[in-house]
């Protein structure tokens, strides 16, 4: 009987040991969670936080936005993050050296955004900058990547009016890109960007700027493979998104056909878009066929309810909106194809490879030279389904 009790006690003890959940638990307050990373060119002057570097030069300044934990009884501060910086050439080495500035380990599992200054990208390729992030197992593939023409550190130092952590705020402002036609936000995460590199494709990343204490996404940074080419403005990005069908909703404006100097606004809510390559007698060309459905979102000027109830006037608006959308697409074609000579995210190449594989085999080695010469023909049909009027 005593032996059975002894065995039972041993089983209970063993069970408790095996089922103990957090034997290596570390409290949240014992970790420094990195929410955002900014990468700038290093300053000319020697900074106090730098370190003796046996190889390379003080090429970059890396700044980390770290979440600040407060105990329950403490009063809420104006900011809930703080910034740590370092200068060097190896991002990995700079991050490790920053442990000398912190009393806790740095954790990158919850990093939200990477902001890169174009001053850095004008000197080195994007893939070199992101090499550390793609190799580290802690990094998430959904990290957002932004490019700025100013100081990247200033972007992550921004304090959101919502008082949420800055890194979280910066990551969330891209979430509605499919409703904001001016922002290139589709497939711009770290994971997709690395896939583009692996496939030797071109890359578009959102542009972010700060002006008068306001942070705003607008336009796109354009990369040929991993080389920074320049920026595409909002109108070019809008035309590209319409052409590729990556927008879910859009607002299209044009001058009123009836009252010049005033605007009519079309709200897109559904579209069918087909970008198709064609090869005839060895000549390559593309067609874009778009059918759009939407509402009249806003009318300016002296336009009465009776005008919008007139089918003939609505047809005039539909044709005018279709022409405006065609102008937008051709503007995007000019910016990307003729000015920058870049196939955006290699979308035209991938279409030709899928539809005409034999032709692609023949031209793939000369694609960069051939692409700017390939014609594009655009056909747009707009259907106004609702005028939005009420009594």
UniProtKB/TrEMBL annotation:
Keyword annotations for this protein, in alphabetical order, are: Germination, Lipoprotein, Membrane, Palmitate, Signal
Biological process according to GO: spore germination
Q: Name one Pfam family in it.
A: Spore_GerAC
Residues spanning the signal sequence = 1-20
Residue span(s) of domain Spore germination GerAC-like C-terminal = 218-388
Q: Would you tell me the Gene Ontology cellular component terms?
A: membrane
Q: Where in the cell is it found?
A: Membrane
The record lists the membrane-crossing segments as none
The segment(s) forming the Spore germination protein N-terminal domain are 24-209
According to Swiss-Prot or TrEMBL, what is its membrane topology? Answer: Lipid-anchor
Family classification: Belongs to the GerABKC lipoprotein family.
PANTHER family reported in the protein's UniProt record: SPORE GERMINATION PROTEIN B3 (PTHR35789)
Q: Which NCBIfam families match?
A: spore_ger_x_C
UniProt name for this protein: Germination protein, Ger(X)C family
């Amino acid at each position: 009987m005593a032996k059975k009790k002894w065995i039972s006690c041993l089983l209970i003890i063993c069970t408790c040991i095996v089922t103990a959940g957090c034997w290596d638990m570390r409290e949240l307050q014992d970790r420094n969670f990195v929410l955002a990373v900014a990468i700038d060119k290093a300053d000319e002057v020697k900074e106090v936080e730098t370190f003796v570097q046996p190889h390379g030069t003080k090429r970059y300044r890396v700044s980390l936005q770290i979440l600040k934990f407060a105990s329950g009884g403490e009063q809420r501060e104006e900011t809930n993050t703080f910034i740590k910086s370092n200068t060097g050439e190896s991002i990995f080495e700079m991050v490790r050296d920053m442990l000398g500035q912190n009393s806790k380990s740095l954790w990158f599992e919850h990093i939200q955004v990477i902001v890169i200054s174009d001053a850095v990208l004008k000197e080195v390729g994007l893939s070199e900058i992101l090499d550390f992030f793609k190799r580290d197992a802690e990094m998430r593939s959904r990290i957002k990547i932004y490019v700025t023409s100013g100081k990247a550190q200033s972007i992550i130092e921004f304090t959101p009016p919502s008082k949420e952590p800055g890194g979280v705020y910066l990551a969330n402002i891209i979430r509605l890109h499919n409703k904001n036609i001016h922002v290139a936000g589709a497939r711009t995460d770290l994971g997709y960007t690395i896939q583009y590199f692996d496939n030797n494709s071109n890359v578009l990343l959102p542009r972010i700027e700060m002006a008068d204490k306001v942070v705003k996404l607008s336009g796109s940074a354009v990369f040929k493979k991993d080389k920074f080419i320049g920026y595409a403005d909002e109108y070019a990005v809008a035309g590209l998104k319409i052409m590729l069908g990556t927008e879910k909703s859009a607002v299209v404006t044009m001058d009123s056909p009836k009252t010049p100097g005033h605007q009519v606004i079309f709200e897109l809510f559904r579209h069918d878009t087909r970008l198709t390559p064609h090869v005839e007698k060895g000549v390559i060309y593309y067609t874009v066929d778009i059918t759009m459905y939407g509402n009249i979102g806003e009318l300016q000027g002296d336009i009465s309810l009776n005008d919008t109830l007139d089918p003939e006037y609505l047809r005039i608006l539909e044709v005018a909106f279709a022409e405006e959308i065609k102008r937008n697409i051709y503007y995007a074609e000019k910016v990307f194809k003729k000015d920058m000579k870049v196939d955006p995210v290699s979308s035209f190449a991938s279409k030709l490879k899928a539809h005409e594989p034999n032709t692609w085999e023949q031209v793939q080695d000369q694609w960069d030279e051939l692409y700017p010469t390939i014609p594009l023909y655009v056909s747009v049909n707009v259907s106004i389904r609702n005028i939005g009027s009420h009594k």
